[in-house]
């Protein structure tokens, strides 16, 4: 009895430390979106760009106007569709939140339309309709899985920002699981992610069974734990089938215990298309997560890039990239602007195969990438076979 009380006290102290630390990080960031944040705007805005986002969610529907989903867990998987407008003067990596609702599309992210989709069959039909409208060879689905402490509007707008900055031309699908979006609900969120595994697996199967030619997956923070646990539970033969369409899996700032991650990778086995891990050793949110987790390193802030590479991953180290958020936990959003160039590097045979003798080809790719980068955010690629000192370095392990 004493031991149990002592353990509970320890957990309480760690949770308090987590909340206090994150509150300090987020101080001065302004209020966060709540009920009614998705008020539709019909104002005209020349130069604004709209993005149609399909939504799969384990969140509970919310009857309050312009809200759609809250942070509680639904009894079954749900679906929706939205159109979000990005303002003409959007700054890459940012979300221009409305200060007054409904927002002004000339300067804010605003919804143009939103509504529920009735069931998986209707979702698949809508997905296929969208895919069929694209030319063959461009029928790609981009699946995003958000992280801890994320409210529904935040997940929707963040994904829209990434889609916009990456100039993605396929079909974006948001998987929004039941995060309450509250600092003190870390354990609730973690349990919600665990509950969402079956629904994420179903989502992957729906997309795989659609007219999609390729699938790109991006997970952030705790969403990486959900992604990895889902991959782990899928039977090997089914994983192999899914892998035929999955072009790349990006794990951004993974909030996963490093030992758990190694166990997950061991169970899943080496992938023909390695996972891409975006890490930053100055990630303050993961530093606090490490504290609450008993001092165990988080993958997204792991000190040893080479060890991660040896596990069969591609590592993009963002430590030296100047963060635009106070927690240094959303650097992946800044990389979205350069995602076509990053994809070009990752598609090089030397990177895919980890083969020797590709130095000249890889070096050329690195130089090519550098030519695309503006003076405010230099991105240079470093590989084991062609080392270039840079703010962002890319490393791969041998198969």
Description:
This protein has 399 residues and is an alpha/beta fold. The chain has 14 helices and ten strands. It has helices at 2-26, 119-132, 152-165, 186-195, 197-208, 222-233, 236-243, 258-268, 284-292, 305-310, 332-335, 339-346, 349-353, 359-370; strands at 49-62, 68-86, 110-117, 140-145, 171-176, 214-220, 246-252, 276-279, 314-317, 393-396. The protein has a ten-stranded mixed beta sheet, sandwiched between helices. A hairpin with a 5-residue loop joins β1 (49-62) and β2 (68-86). α4 (186-195) packs parallel to α6, α6 (222-233) runs parallel beside α8 (258-268) and α12 (339-346) packs antiparallel against α14.
Secondary structure tally, helices: 14
- Structural class, judged by helices and strands? alpha/beta
Low-confidence stretches: 1-13, 23-29, 348-399
User: What's the mean pLDDT score?
Assistant: 81
> How large is the share of residues in beta strands?
15-25%
Largest sheet: 10 strands, mixed
- Could you state the order of secondary-structure elements as H and E? HEEEHEHEHHEHHEHEHHEHHHHE
Radius of gyration: 21 Å
Query: In order across it, which strands form the biggest sheet?
Result: 3-2-1-5-4-6-7-8-9-10
Q: How many extended strands?
A: 10
How much helical structure, as a percent, in the residues?
Answer: 25-40%
The rough form would be described as globular
Ends distance? 50 Å
Task: Jot down its keywords.
globular, alpha/beta, ten-stranded mixed β-sheet, disordered N terminus, 399 residues, single chain, disordered C terminus, 10 strands
Briefly summarize what is shown.
By secondary structure, the protein is an alpha/beta fold. The protein contains 14 helices and ten strands. The chain starts with a helix and ends with a strand.
């Amino acid at each position: 009895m004493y031991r149990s009380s002592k353990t509970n006290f320890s957990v309480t102290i760690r949770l308090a430390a987590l909340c206090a630390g994150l509150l300090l990080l987020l101080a001065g960031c302004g209020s966060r979106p709540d009920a009614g944040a998705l008020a539709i705007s019909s104002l005209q805005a020349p130069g604004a760009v709209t993005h149609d986002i399909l939504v799969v969610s384990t969140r509970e529907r919310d009857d309050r106007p312009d809200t759609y989903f809250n942070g509680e867990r639904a009894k079954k998987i749900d679906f929706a569709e939205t159109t979000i407008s990005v303002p003409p003067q959007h700054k890459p990596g940012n979300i221009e939140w409305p200060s007054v609702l409904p927002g002004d599309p000339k300067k804010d992210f605003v919804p143009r339309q939103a509504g529920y989709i009735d069931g998986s069959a209707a979702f698949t039909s809508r997905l296929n309709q969208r895919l069929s409208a694209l030319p063959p060879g461009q029928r790609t689905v981009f699946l995003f899985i958000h992280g801890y402490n994320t409210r529904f509007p935040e997940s929707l707008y963040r994904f829209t920002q990434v889609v916009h900055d990456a100039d993605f031309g396929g079909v974006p699908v948001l998987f929004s699981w039941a995060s309450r979006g509250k600092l003190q609900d870390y354990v609730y969120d973690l349990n919600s992610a665990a509950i969402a595994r079956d629904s994420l697996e179903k989502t992957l199967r729906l997309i795989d069974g659609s007219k999609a030619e390729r699938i790109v997956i991006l997970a952030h923070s705790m969403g990486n734990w959900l992604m990895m646990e889902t991959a782990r539970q899928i039977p090997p033969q089914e994983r192999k089938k899914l892998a035929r369409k999955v072009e790349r899996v990006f794990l951004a700032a993974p909030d996963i215990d490093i030992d758990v991650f190694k166990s997950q990778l061991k169970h899943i086995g080496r992938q023909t298309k390695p996972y891409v891990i975006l890490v930053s050793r100055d990630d303050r949110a993961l530093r606090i997560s490490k504290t609450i987790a008993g001092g165990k390193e988080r993958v997204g802030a792991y000190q040893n890039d080479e060890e991660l590479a040896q596990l069969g991953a591609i590592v993009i180290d963002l430590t030296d990239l100047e963060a635009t958020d106070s927690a240094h936990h959303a650097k992946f959003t800044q990389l979205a602007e350069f995602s076509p160039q990053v994809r070009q590097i990752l598609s090089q045979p030397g990177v895919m195969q980890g083969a020797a003798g590709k130095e000249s080809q890889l070096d050329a790719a690195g130089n090519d990438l550098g030519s695309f980068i503006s003076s405010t955010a230099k991105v240079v690629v470093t590989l084991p076979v062609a080392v270039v000192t840079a703010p962002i370095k890319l490393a791969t392990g041998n198969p």
